[in-house]
Amino acid sequence: MHDQSGDWMSPPTSLQRGTGFHHLIADEHRLIAQVLTYCHAAGYAIPPLLVIDYLIAIKTSPFVLLFGPSGQGKTELARLFAQALVLPFDDQYIYVNLGSSLQASEIQDRFGWMKFVETLENAAAPANAGRLFFLCLDNLRPHDIYTYFANVSRDPDGITRLVMRGYPPHKWPALPSNVIITGTLDAEHPVDRDQSSLLAQINCVYMQPQWLQSNIRTVKRQQRMAPVGMQRLLLDQQYRSDEAASDRLQTLLGPHLDDILQPPSELMAVLWQSNLTYTQTWRSTMLRAVANSFTIEGHGLFIPYDVLNNAQFAYSFVMARQLLLRLWGQPQHSAAIEALLHRQLAQLPSTTLVGLTDSLLY
């Protein structure tokens, strides 16, 4: 909404349920619309909520894990999102398939590691400072999480590096800020407790067929080149430190901040029953995820004109999918979490994104 001078006015403090908005918002909503349009033109019907979920994850952390049953479009989501923003510059999307037969596993692992480091070095080149690079590590195995999604440290020169388990410090690669690393993990692979602790530092997107993902259907349309400025928007609008995320949320939520950043009682019950500890590391990840659930203009990505409800929904939604991954294979807990997500989705307002007919509900 604009005033007579053409400047943006502050959004209303509450959202009228069921009321959509159809004007153009020059921020992440345009980026989401670009990705959805590109996906459709490429022949895929991707749910808008899935794109929003993935966008928040990559804004929050350079590491994103797409997990769920095999064949649900994990690889396609990573590829289409990247290509929607970098087409026709295909060198900015790098795909590494880590799945292989047992006989070829050593060669495949070595190739994957070399390609991984090569991508980081290329992105770190001064000429590529303003370009986004998307690296997709497909068909991860649980132990690969340690290799490719390990801890981040800063060396004495202030360079951010990946602490690669099993490699000497002088071989730890630098992690440029313009690299997004996405891994795909089939949910049938068990995740042990050590891996579960590491996953608290990683943003994950849960892709489940019945209620979070629509069927992929094929259409034939022409793809469009990515608009200028989308990569810069994504590079600039990232809150990846606790300080930056806290400042952002303090501005948006003010005195409500502490009340919102508490796990819902239903999820706390799951934590207690499953003997998981809500650590400071996990809370830090949640803080950054909620901060990144807003656009540059302060509109919610889930609920555009309701700041508090958007923050509360983002917190519950992100924490629920974290729990789903860490408790995968424990059906008694998974059922309770999925029931909560069902109720959350049912409470979303029937609003549309940037004039698109795709509803957030499906």
Automatic annotation (TrEMBL):
Domain ATPase dynein-related AAA, residue spans: 64-115
GO molecular function, one term: ATP hydrolysis activity
SUPFAM superfamilies: P-loop containing nucleoside triphosphate hydrolases (SSF52540)
Protein name listed in UniProt: ATPase dynein-related AAA domain-containing protein
Organism: Herpetosiphon geysericola
